[in-house]
Amino acid sequence: MTVEELLARVRRLAEPGAAPDPGLPGLLTRTGDVARVREAARLLAGTDPALLLPAGRTPRALRVAVAASFTADGVVPLLKVALLAAGVDARIELTPPDRLLLQLEAGDSALARFAPDLTLCLTDERLFLPDESSPEDLDDTRTQTRDRLARFADAVRTFARHGTGRVLVHTVPLPAGRPRTLIAHRDRATLGRLWRELNLGLLDLAEPGGRVDVLDLETLLASAPVPLRDERLHRFAGMAWSPALEWFYAREAAGYARAVAGTSRKCLVLDLDNTVWGGVLGDDGPENIEVGPLYPGNAFAAVQRAALSLRRQGILLAVASKNDPDLVERVFAEHPALLLRRGDFVAVKAGWDAKDGSLAEIAAELNLGLDSFVFADDSPFECELVRGALPEVAVVRLDGDPADHVGTLLAGGHFDVLATTDTDKRRTELYQAREQRHRWQESRPSTEDYLAGLELVVRVRPADEYQLLRVVQLGARTNQFTFTGHAHSEQRTRELAAAPDGLVLAFEVADRFGDEGVVGAVWVAAGEGRWLIENMVMSCRVFARGIEFAVLQTVADLATAAGADRLEAEFRPTGRNGPAEKFLTDAGFTPGARPSLSLPRERPLAPPWLTLHFEERTTAHA
Known about the structure:
Blueprint: H1 3-12, H2 24-29, H3 34-44, E1 60-68, H4 75-85, E2 88-94, H5 100-105, H6 110-114, E3 118-122, H7 138-162, E4 166-170, H8 177-180, H9 185-203, E5 212-215, H10 217-221, H11 231-237, H12 243-261, E6 267-270, H13 281-284, H14 297-312, E7 316-322, H15 325-334, E8 347-351, H16 355-366, E9 373-377, H17 380-389, E10 394-397, H18 405-410, H19 422-425, H20 427-442, H21 447-453, E11 456-462, H22 465-477, E12 481-482, H23 490-498, E13 502-511, E14 514-527, E15 530-538, H24 547-561, E16 566-569, H25 578-586, E17 596-598, E18 610-614
Parallel strand pairs: 1-2, 1-3, 3-4, 4-5, 6-7, 6-9, 7-8, 9-10, 11-18, 15-16
Antiparallel strand pairs: 11-13, 12-15, 13-14, 14-15, 16-17
Helix pairs in contact: 1-3, 3-4, 4-12, 7-9
C-alpha cells in the first residue's frame, strides 16, 4: 500500500459515520516517509482514537511528557502515531528546549505540574559537552562530561523521586565530527573512552526497583541505517536529530510506553515453513528442511533461538501452520537440528484450516484477547488475511532474506515489559498445566467433582518486596478481571502497601497440578466504617475456580475485624472487564456509582471446594 493510499484512509476517518480502521496506525509505523507520517498525525489530531481500535475497544490513556535539551517539536506528532499503534491514546506535553534541567529539578515546574505517567528525556551531546568546549583539551572534556552527567543524574533522580510516573532517558551518540577534529588517533580513542564512560553513567540510572529506565540509543543506532543528524536542519533550526532518527526514537519510545500502559503482547504465533525452518515440509520432507549451521539454515536457527529466548522470559509460543499435523509432530520429536521442541509451545495448530481461524482457536484455548498476539509468517497472503480478519493481532511478515528475520521479528517492541518476574519465566509451564487441568476436567462426571478434586489452596497475604513487582505487572497487563482497567503505578502501590490505612494483598494458587504462583492482587484503602477496593485483578489462567470469592472473603473478614460495616468497590467498565462486573454481581454487591457490600456477611463467600489461608505480613517492605 502506498503512502498516499494510507493518507486517504486517514482522511476517511474524519468523515461523518466513519468506520473504524484499526490496522491503520500499524501500517503507518512501517513507512519510512517521515513527512507523510507527520501529515497523518496532523489529520488524526481531531479523530476519535476509538476508530483506530477494533470495535468495542478503548485505548489506554497516558500522560506523556517530552522533556528535551534541544528542539524536539518534530518528535511529538511522530510519537503520537507510534503510540496509537501501541494502543495508547497519549496526551503529550512538550517542555521548552533550553530548560530541561530546571524542569526536572524544580518541584513546581510546568513538567511537575503536568504529572506525567511517562517522561521522555531527550538529550544530545551538547548537554554534556557544549559546542564552545575545546575538543583537543581532553582533561577539560573529562571534567565537563563528569560534572554535567552528575547534575543530569541528580535532576533525573530528583524528578523521579517526587513524581508519579516512569522516566525514560537514553544513551547519547557522539557525532562523528567531534572525534574527527582530533588528528591523533590515540586522542580519538581517549575521547571514545570518555564518551563511553558517560553512557555507562547514564545506563546506571536504571536502578533495580526504581522508576528510571534507559534506552541504549547508541547501541541501537550501531546497526540501524539512520543518520544521527541532518547538518543543515541542525544549523538552520537547531534540530539535534535527523527526521529519520526522530521517527526511529518515537517507535522505540512507543515500545516502552506499551510496557508502561500494560498493552504488551503475550503470545507469539509462528508459521513453520520458511519461518521456523527453510523449505516446505510437505514437499521437501523432514530430512530436507533447512535448519542448521550453514546459510540459510543458520538464519532459521537464529529465529528459533530468538523465539526460545522470548519463551524463557515469559512469552507464550504457538504454531499456526498449514501442514500435515503428524509430520509436524515427527519433525519436532526427531529433527536433530531443531532448537524448538513441541514442549516449547502452548498450542500447535497444524492442518489445512485458515490461519485466522487457527489464531482465534488458540486465543480461546488460552483465554487471551487477540490483542495479546503477534503472528509471524512469510506468506503475504496469510499476513494480509490475518491482518484483515483479526485487526487486533500484530502481524509480522518475515519475507525476503531470512538473515533479516530476527531483526524484523523483534523490531516492533511488541513484547516489551518493564521487568520480568519468576512467574513470567514459568509462564509456558503454567499454561501447559492449565491444559492438563482441562483434560482432567473432561474425565470428571461433573463440574463440582472436578473442582473438589483439584485440591485447590489459595494463599492471601500482604504483598512483600518480592511480590510487589509481580503485583504491579498484573495490574498493568490484566484486561478481563480488573475492576477499573487503570493500573496502579509502582510508586502508588508501594505507598498504599506501606500506609497504615492502606493494604495491598497478593494471592497465590496451587492445586494437584502444581503451583500457579501469584495470580492476582487487591488494592484497598481503609476508611472509618468502610473499606474501598481501589482495584482487584486476577490472571485469566485461573478463572472459574471460585478463587476471587475466597480472596473477597479475606478482605471482608479483615474489614469486619477493623470495624467496617461495608465494602465499596471502584468499578469502571472498559469493554473487556465483564468477568469482574459479573463477579461483583454474584458476590452480592449493590449496584451504584461505587458498588457496595454490607458487612458482616451472614454466609461465607469462599466456596467449600478450596482451602483458604491468610498469612499476616512477616517482612517489612517499602
